[in-house]
């Protein structure tokens, strides 16, 4: 099993990125290999369908997603939607990279919950033929989930994240290699 994680905030010390880093520790503790793409660090050029050359940063992203059995996408809630950084990254992808793979969305909002960004992400995942994890993670009110050293501050939220990750791993296992083929066959029939 291999998981690709994309952190969609262009902000230092972003809540959504810290949640992804926490999930990364859970996956690594279970010996699950992870590709972590932080879009604040891997700055992708604005996607253009006219471009004939894939930029190296985008190549890194596409390769990580192609090789993954499941994806975890994190975004801040911006104007009732996902961040431009994450949307731009997702525009580099197509169905062949994502089809049949479970996707766990994560959001962070200034308001009580970041549901709009999660719902917009859901539409994009569906268009890429990914499989939306029944659980998702939303951190609201700019809640301090971790301190600056990454130590959890709110055990209730941590428990919810743990449950969502547990369900996501279960889904990736169920759909892993053996069952990916039938999904492809179904799409071709
Ligand atoms: C351009 C912009 C638009 C925002 N729009 C919303 C919004 O529509 N709803 C909301 O609850 N918070 C909104 N916020 C607040 C962010 O969602 C909040 O600061 C969030 O914690 C940022 O996530 P991050 O720490 O992962 O970058 C906005 C912030 C910015 C900079």
Automatic annotation (TrEMBL):
Which organism is this protein's natural source? Brevibacillus gelatini
Q: Which GO terms describe its molecular function?
A: FMN binding; oxidoreductase activity
Q: Please give the family membership noted in the entry.
A: Belongs to the azoreductase type 2 family.
List residues of the NADPH-dependent FMN reductase-like domain. 1-141
Q: One GO CC term of this entry?
A: cytosol
List the Pfam families: FMN_red (PF03358)
Q: What is this protein called?
A: NAD(P)H-dependent oxidoreductase
């Amino acid at each position: 099993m291999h998981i690709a994680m994309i952190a969609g905030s262009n902000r230092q010390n972003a809540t959504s990125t810290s949640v992804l880093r926490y999930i990364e520790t859970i996956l690594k503790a279970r010996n699950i290999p992870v590709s972590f793409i932080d879009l604040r660090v891997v700055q992708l050029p604005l996607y253009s369908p006219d471009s004939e050359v894939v930029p190296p940063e985008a190549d890194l992203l596409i390769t990580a997603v192609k090789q993954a059995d499941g994806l975890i996408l994190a975004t801040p809630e911006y104007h009732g939607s996902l961040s431009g950084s994450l949307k731009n990254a997702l525009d580099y992808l197509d169905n062949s990279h994502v089809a049949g793979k479970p996707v766990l969305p994560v959001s962070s909002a200034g308001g009580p919950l970041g549901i709009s960004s999660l719902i917009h992400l859901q539409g994009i995942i569906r268009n890429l033929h990914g499989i939306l994890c029944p659980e998702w993670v939303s951190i609201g009110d700019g809640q301090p989930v971790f301190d600056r050293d990454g130590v959890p501050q709110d055990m209730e939220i941590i428990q919810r994240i743990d449950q969502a990750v547990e369900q996501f791993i279960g889904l990736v296992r169920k759909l892993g290699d053996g069952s990916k083929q039938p999904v492809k066959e179904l799409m071709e029939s």
